[in-house]
Fold this protein.
Amino acid sequence: MQQSTDLLRIILHADMDAFFASIEQRDNPELQGKPVIVGAQPGHRGVVSAASYEARQFGIHSAMPVSQAWVRCPQGKYVQPRMKVYTQESRFIMSIFRAFAPLVEQVSVDEAFLDISGTGKLWGSPAEAAVAIQKEIWQQRRLTSSIGIAPNKFLAKIASDFNKPNGITEVPVDREGIVAWLSKLPIERMWGIGRKSREVFYRIGVKTIGDLQRMTEENLHKRLGKAGKSLYHLARGEDFRTVGGYEGAKSISREHTFGSDTDDVELWRRVLLSLSRSVSRQARNEAVNASTIVFTWRLQDFSRHSCRMTRSAPTHLAKHIYEGALELMEKAAVVGRKLRLIGVGITNFDVGMQQNLFDNWENESAWEASEAAMDALNKKFGRKSIFKGGESGLDMRPRC
């Protein structure tokens, strides 16, 4: 007998369709129906931030070097990203989600989990609720979304990738139905399994989730370690994580692509200072302190690398972030090599700006006051109204 949906946990994963590119097509009618590539301009260095579905037919995808995108689609419409517009649009979308669900967990600028358990009397069946959400987004924002419906987050996330764009996919709710539904899917549908890890599974004879289901938990643990146990349960659709309230970003980062590959260490330091200040400013705005600082770099062959360090006390000060980035840069042994990109990030947040009651309290307070004052002046008179001396003359225009 079919179990009543009022007694089930019902999770939606709502994913906006080609979010950045769709916004550009909406705001500029001349771009509708055209292959739109949001990112760096052709002839400049940088990567694709987003591609419309028309552009994806040419094999273009996010993070692809724009030079490769141009070779595949020279007739495409190349558009500079408008991050402020996308961020504002994201806020509108999330407010719509919160009108339908008591629990919403935003996981990126264009996707979220919604727990609609027990809302049947308000919105009808889960499918009817999904249709209502799509309709509301279209009527208010003229954008489309794809929604997965399932008993847990893992299954809902997988389902939302089906029937794009503007699709709705509902996963079976009974155990046997879930296992059968998953069994036919390629292994790369699993969270966290990309092109490289897919090859690892192929070598052990695992090409579908069904192949994974036939392996014992002991065998998976032996071959894959701790991850094996998690994959054993996920392959059977078992995921007990709950939908949390909006927690904001789990990390804050900034990157800069150089106009040409460079081994100029002094230039690296100046760029890292500017990036550290930007990261610090956002951390202050979101009232978070971070324990971990991350340094990222990309080499001439486009390979991406990163290293990190954990501080004894969380911070949001640009001074600490910058010092950590410099230390990591030295440890990374990149001096003498030409870099295409560098970046700074922070993660492992403690929410709330609690005063640090340790040895350097007075000195820390002075830095806090100084950086907050710079924030206030830049907010009032513009980002370039006041800056550190090391940032003078820097060209920090986004190159995606």
